[in-house]
Each structure stands twice: as C-alpha cells, then as structure tokens.
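Q: My collaborator sent me two sequences in one message, no labels, and asked for predicted structures for both. Can we handle them in order? The first one she listed is below.
A: Yes, handling them in the order given. First sequence, followed by its structure tokens:
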Amino acid sequence: MSQPIASLLFRRVFKWVILCILLFSSLQAYLNYRAIERNFDMTIRDVANTHIPLLSLAIWDIELQAIHKQISLLTKNTNIAYVVIKASTGQQFVGGNGGQSISDEHLMFDIPAPDGVGPRVGTMELVVDRSVLRHEVMRSFFIVLAEVLLLTVFIFAAVFTILRRDLERPMRQLADFVKNLQANKIATRLDLELGPRHVYNEIDLVVDGFRTMQDRLQKHIENQDALVSERTTQLQQAMDRLKKLSVTDVLTGCYNRLFFNERMPGEMHRAIRYERDLAVVFCDIDFFKSVNDQYGHAVGDDVLIVFVESLQRELRAEIDWLVRYGGEEFLIILPETSLPAAIEVAERMRLNVERDLKVPLPDGQYLNITASFGVAERLADDTLETLVQRADQWLYFSKSLGRNQVQPVSGRVTRDVESL
C-alpha cells in the first residue's frame, strides 16, 4: 500500500523534533525552576523582614493582639504554612497549619529590640510551603511546553502543506496519469497542475523524461500495430478452435461430457427456480459392439456420425442439445419439455433411425441400425444425478424388453424403475 511522500517525510522528522522539544523544554524548565526558586526565597525573606520590626515593637510593648495580628498576616501568605514566635520572656505564639512543620523548610529569624540596642526580644520561625514552589514550576514548565508544541505544530503544518503542494501533489498527479494511461492513448500529453509561482525543478525533469519515453513508445507502437493485430487475430482464432474442441466430440460434432457437466447444472437450476419442465433422453445404438467387431471401427464411426445427424433433425435450434455421453451412448437435453412431449420426441427419433438410417458397407450393402431410448422428467426432489440415473434405468428397461423402443411408453412416471 502506497504512502504519501509528505506523510512519510513528516513521520521520519517527527521523532527527532519531539526529542529536541523535550530537551529544550527540560532545559527551559530547569532554568525557570532556578529563577522561580530564587524569587521564592527572596519573597519569603522580604515578607519576614517586613514583619520583624512590627513584631519587635509588639513584643517589646507586650501587645498580644498586635503579635497575633502579625502572625495572621504572615500565614495569609500562601508560601508560609506555619509561624512560631518565641519571646525572650518564654512566651510562644503560633499560627498556621502545624501539620506541615516537619516536612517543609524551616527558616529562623532573630527579632531585635526596637531601638536596635540590647539583646534580641525573640525569634521567628517560618515553615515554608514548598508545594507552592513546585506548582509554580510545573505551571511554568507546561506553559513552556505548550508554547513549544504550538510553535512546532505551526511549523510542521507549514512544512507539511508545502510538501503536499510542491512535492506530493505533482508526484500523485504523475502516478495517477501513469496508472490510468491506456495503451491506445500512450501519446496523451502529460501536464501537471503546478502553482503560478512554480520554479523548474527535478519534478519537471521527470515529466520531460516521461514525455520523451512516450514519443519513443508511440513510434515503436505504430510500427508494431499491424503485426500485433495479425497475431491477435490468429491467437483468437486458435482459442476459439480450442474452446470448440474442448466442449465438442471430435467425431460426431455434438457436445461432449465435459460440456454436459458444465451446462447441465445451470439447466437444472433454471428449471427449479422458474418451476419449468425439463426432460432428458438417454439413447443407445443397438448391438453397436457387434458392428465394430464385424465391420471394423471405420464403419462404427460412420454409424455414430449418421446416428447423431438423425437425432439432431428432431432438436429445436438454440433450445435442445445433444451430448455424447460415452461410446455409443447419447444424452438429449430437452428444456421446457414435459414427459409426454419428450416421449414423443424420442419416438420420432427412434422411427427415423429405424426407417431411414442406412450405413453403406464396403461390399455395397447397407447396414440398418436401431436404437433404444429411456426418457425421464425432472421431479421435485430430483438432483442432476438422480434425473440422469432414472433415464439410464429406463434405457436399460428398453434394452431388456428387446431394444428398438422408447421407455416409458406412457406419460406416467414411476419410481419403481429403480428395482429393475
């Protein structure tokens, strides 16, 4: 199965571009992480330095309400999870989510005296929530990744469009032209639909080469047309002869058993489908073996030929057909024919053979021959084999009763013939 060249090139480049995107995104994410981390630490320290002077005054003046207010303001900062204020007097003030104090980063700050002189008045411990930093880093990474992906998609879309327009489309036009080009139209000019700003390139070289090949092929074909036509006619005639030989008996000219096996199932199918009559007549030349033994096979062949000619005079053109089933046995297929009508046809054939069929012998005498006939009509539950078998059994019955007759002798159909 063919693949568009633009898609093939796209897929080959895609994995390398994706690898470059991942490397670039990872590097950019790392740099962003370092910058965000520095900003994060600076923000925490700025917040702490902002609140330390106020806490110093509140602790110095023992303003408990002011201390709690500062703690509340500190914990409102999303980067600070927990705050612990320890006064030099031993008092301790806490605020925020104490459950995170163990896992997160702890920062310690001294709280100096308000005038900056003297010992410190306490310490401030801040528990930093690093999850905020991680969320910010991830958000930054995905933003960078999205930007790179959007840029890549845009570039690939542009490249893919250009490849399809300038490479795949002309090549597909060329392939379709070659695929649909017929032998009798080899000189059809190849013209590709190219853009208005098209520049002569390798595709045009291919087109020029193909046109040159077309011209040479056309000249060669013109010189060979007469010979090809003659050889084609001879071949067709030979095939027709072979086809005719394959389905006809060489000696008598009637159909052979191979043709019967091919055509008879269709006759049965039509008769069943449209509920039409179908009859078969099995016939056999009486004492044919003795003719061959007494007069030779040449006379036997003459007997077969004139016998077939006699049978064919009673057949309807393009409807009934005659098959040499084997040796001196013949099958007559009578579509659209009931059993009584088929018996009448068989009886006329028998009379023609008995009265008119005379084969000349080498001594000047004439050999009179007779034939026996068995007739069967398709029944509702018949198969091809059972229909032919029943006709064959009626033929056997005819020969067992003395030959030169048609069985059954009436329009009645009996299945007791199987017991014969």
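Q: And the one she listed second?
A: Here it is, processed independently of the first:
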Amino acid sequence: MLGAVDRPDILLVAALLHDLGKRAGSRDHAAEGAPLARAAALRLGFDARDADLVELLVREHLTLVELATGRDLSDASTLEALLQAVGRDLTTLELLRALTEADARAAGPAAWSAWRSQLVDHLTAQARDALTGTPRAPRDLLAPQRAVQEAVREAVVRTGAAQVLYPAPTDEEPITQVCLGAPDGPGVFAAQARVLARHRMDVRSAVVLTLDGVAVNTWWVTGRPSDQPHPTALRTALERELQRREDPAARVLDVDPGAPPRTAEDAPVVTLLPGASSEATVVQVNARNRASLLADVAAMITLHRLHVRSAHVMTLGQRAVDVLYLTDARGRPLEAPMVGRVIAALMDAAAT
C-alpha cells in the first residue's frame, strides 16, 4: 500500500496519528485529532506544507468511506463533497484512499468487505476522473437493472398485484439485489421495508422509482440469492402488507425490537445534511441497530406524506446509520418547517 502512493512517508504518519483525537467523551475524534496530528508532524521534522497535509488526512480519514457507503453515488453532490475534502488534489485523493483502506483493514474484515471496497473504489474513480479530466462513460454502481425494472413494471400492470424479482448476481460479493413492484401509492416503500424486516433481510441500500404509476423499488440486502426467501413468499407477504397498510396495527413488527436506549449515548440522533443534494432533503438517522429500524422510519415518512428517493444503510457496531433522500409529493426538497417536523418525528420513530 505504501508503494502505491507518491508520499508513503505522509501516509505512514497519517496512519499512525489518525485516531489521535479518540478519547472518552470525544464527539468528533477526526476533527479533534487533526490539529494534534499537525503538531506531531512538525515535531517529527515535516515542513509546514506536509504537516498541513497530515492534518487534512486525519481530519478527513472517515470522509471517503462515509460518502461511499452512506450517500447516493449518482448524486453530483456526493462527488463534489469528496473533491472539496481533498482540496481538489489528486495526490491527496490517493493518500486518502490508501488511508481509508488501511484504517478499515485494521478494524477487521467486516470493516473492509468487498462491498465497501467496491463502493469506495467507485467513488474514488469518479473523483480521479474529475481531477484528471479523463472522459469515461458514466457508470452507476448502485444502479438497478433496467430490464428487471421494466419486467416488474409490466407484471404489475398486467396483474394489478405486487411483484418480486431477483436479478442475476453481477459480482461475487454476497449482496443480493431484489426488485419489488406494486401499484404506486402512499406507504408502498414502508410496506416493502416491513416485509424485508419480517423476513430478516438486512438492507444495505435502496433506490426508489415510479414508472407509469408503478412503484419499482430496488433493494440491496446482505447474503447471496440462494440465502433469500423465495420470490413467491415475498410477493404474498407484500400483497398482505399493502392491503393492511392503512391499519396502524399492521405496522407493529413481530421482530425483536432490540434493547432500549440505556444512556444518552444510546439515544438516536437525527441530523440534517445540508448541501448533500440539490434535488432532495438528506437526513441521517443514527440509532441503536434493530431489525425494524428502517421500517419504523419509513412508516413515519409515510405519515408525513413524503417520498423516499433513495436510502443508504450502514451498520457501525451496535449502531445503524440510515441516510434518507426525501422529497415532497411533487418531488421537491422539503421546506424548512416540514424539515423540523420530520426530524422530530424520526427521532420518535428511531427511539421506538
């Protein structure tokens, strides 16, 4: 890894110092550790310019993986956020990519799975192309298969009923793409989330789309297709869920709710991410992980008559981080009063 970058000395020092800000009560160890790392680099004999680079790498050492795994990679704002973080400098980008992998590998195999590596590499390649001016055909990593979407849409139109289809796997990572379709209407996304939760399917990401009055939502879940429920079982469950979606009792999931918050640190945190998208309001829900979390959050969004454009899910130890791209009924970002109400409602849903 050291041989893959122009400044292996900077990478080594940044790797040694990247967690310098970790301490009891620290709220942002990267930001708190960055100036300490700069001071240490100066003491080690680096000049001010190199010490500034060490400081930047320590401050941003979580940025690349958080953007790659928790943001919409098809949104131009995601790429722009990374370019700003590295100061639009190619050398800094390559150092941050190497530091990201080194940090994750040190944390264990789960922190640097093939799935995360692929997402990080995809976003890095986008940034590299932008900085070098290399013209390449655009490629969306978390892109639903269009032929599958169209097949599901046609089946829903033909039958008037919910449909489920597992596309053929596109790589060796144990991640399954599943396409769920139904006549569009309020609560479809939440109903689908409840079905997946009841079948113990661990959601990583979701892309929401409406085609000619049909909700065609693509979900990425942990595990290979052979590990997933049969499409008929999911379709039957989704039909039942859609028929009962107006019944509040139907929203009660018969899954382990997880341990209740015990301290203030266990409580959910809901954060608005301004600037994360120009096309949607982006909200991050950081809460104690449980099987029903996304479904509970989706139900609250339905109650407020909002739409989910995409959802991105990370699991960090005992915490789950759900990043939601929300729009109003007309597909526009939310107005300020609604944002306040939604954040309060999501706090309640995440604490349930």
